[in-house]
Write a structure and sequence with these properties.
about 180 residues; about 95% helix; about 0% strand
């Protein structure tokens, strides 16, 4: 009987040990599954955060590309505007040089007439000479007025050109800033 008890006790111990080992095995197998589930959730969360960051980066890159295209368009238009104003100013300077030359010639004729150019002329031709001198003085006044208009136009174009160059420099500075932001 004693041996039977020992055998039964041993069997009971084995059964208890098996149950403990089985239960422990079940506990061990559940722990990695829970850890894996938590690790899986963390991985999904990390991937979602990474996708959101990529979307943000792509949106920023698209905005920067759009800004760059707009600035490049503005710079191109500004360069055309500068070329147009510079051409106009160059044309005015050329006209001013021609005008100054014409004014100088007329001024010489008026000075000649005022210095007594009509004194040695017979009386019949003197009226024509004086009429010519009066006409030359009017022409000189007109030439002076035209020359002044051209000088004013030159100054206005020079100022406009300076302002447009400042805008061009501003656009270039923005492009430089955008380039630094992209890097």
């Amino acid at each position: 009987m004693l041996s039977r008890r020992i055998v039964l006790s041993g069997l009971a111990l084995v059964a208890v040990a098996t149950m403990i080992a089985g239960g422990r095995g079940e506990l061990l197998s559940q722990a990695p599954a829970a850890a894996r589930a938590e690790t899986g959730d963390a991985a999904v969360t990390a991937l979602v955060a990474e996708v959101r960051a990529l979307r943000t980066d792509l949106a920023e890159a698209a905005r920067n590309q759009l800004r760059a295209q707009m600035l490049m368009g503005r710079v191109g238009m500004q360069e055309q505007r500068l070329a147009y104003l510079d051409k106009q100013r160059s044309d005015v300077i050329t006209q001013l040089a021609v005008q100054a030359q014409m004014t100088s010639g007329i001024r010489g004729q008026v000075q000649n007439a005022d210095a007594g150019g009509c004194n040695g002329v017979p009386a019949e031709q003197r009226r024509d000479c004086e009429s010519m001198a009066t006409m030359l003085k009017r022409q000189l006044a007109d030439q002076d007025a035209r020359e002044q208009q051209l000088r004013t136009a030159e100054n206005e174009l020079t100022n406009a050109l300076s302002a447009e160059q400042a805008r061009w420099s501003d656009f270039n500075a923005r492009l430089d800033e955008l380039e630094r932001a992209i890097r």
